Amino acid sequence: MSSKEQVIAETRAWVDRVVIGLNLCPFAKAPQVKGQIRYALSLACDPAALLADLIAELERLAEASAERLETTLLIHPQVLEDFADYNDFLELVDATVEELDLDGVIQVASFHPQYQFEGTEPNDLGNATNRSPYPTLHLIREDSIDRAVAAFPEAEAIYQTNIETMLRIGGDAWRALQQQCRDDALAADLPPAA
């Protein structure tokens, strides 16, 4: 397996084991099962190249039918590895969504291995709710969010519930889940048993 394939495999494992497995996003399972999540790998090494990849993915998602492509995870392991730089880049992401006239159509959620909510310490386990294996921009259709919120009337409680989940499972279980995601990615390359 190439390192590119491994990055995608580990991210898929994170979606399965963490996002869906811990029910951090009650809306993620259906598109994952239906194959409607695009895992796009950016090989960008600088923010300008990542921005070009982001624009291409935003346009791809906007043009595709929701039945074929519900959401996109743009994984970018070689750029914005520092969370402060990543966080600054998010302002450009929002401006780009507006410039493409996609405000109200697509929104971008943020995930990063060093994710840190404002007002928290770096080691605060609640930050793990948004900690992905690699820096990742999640492109989400606003219509999908509206449907999900209508089906889940207490959607605003998800954020707090997720933090409580991470605190409940504890640091050892979190580290074990991260290792399982890495192991799943490695196992994806193993030849089938004879």
Structure explained in plain terms:
Strands 1-2-4-3 form a four-stranded mixed beta sheet, sandwiched between helices. It has one domain. It is built from six helices and four strands. Helix 1 (3-20) runs antiparallel to helix 6 and helix 3 packs across helix 4. It is of the alpha+beta class and 194 residues long. The two termini are 19 Å apart. It has helices spanning 3-20, 29-33, 47-63, 83-99, 142-151, 158-187; strands spanning 37-41, 71-75, 106-111, 136-141. The longest helix has 30 residues, at 158-187.
In short:
The chain has 194 residues and is an alpha+beta fold.
Q: Sketch the topology as an H/E string, one letter per element.
A: HHEHEHEEHH
Helix content: 40-55%
> How are strands sequenced across the largest beta sheet?
1-2-4-3
Oligomer type: single chain
Based on CA inertia axes, which overall geometry fits? globular
Structural class of the helix and strand makeup? alpha+beta
Largest sheet: 4 strands, mixed
Strand content: 5-15%
* First and last CA, distance: 19 Å
How many individual β-strands? 4
Average pLDDT level = 92
Q: Which SSEs are present, and which pair or pack?
A:
Layout: H1 3-20, H2 29-33, E1 37-41, H3 47-63, E2 71-75, H4 83-99, E3 106-111, E4 136-141, H5 142-151, H6 158-187
Parallel strand pairs: 1-2
Antiparallel strand pairs: 2-4, 3-4
Helix pairs in contact: 1-6, 3-4
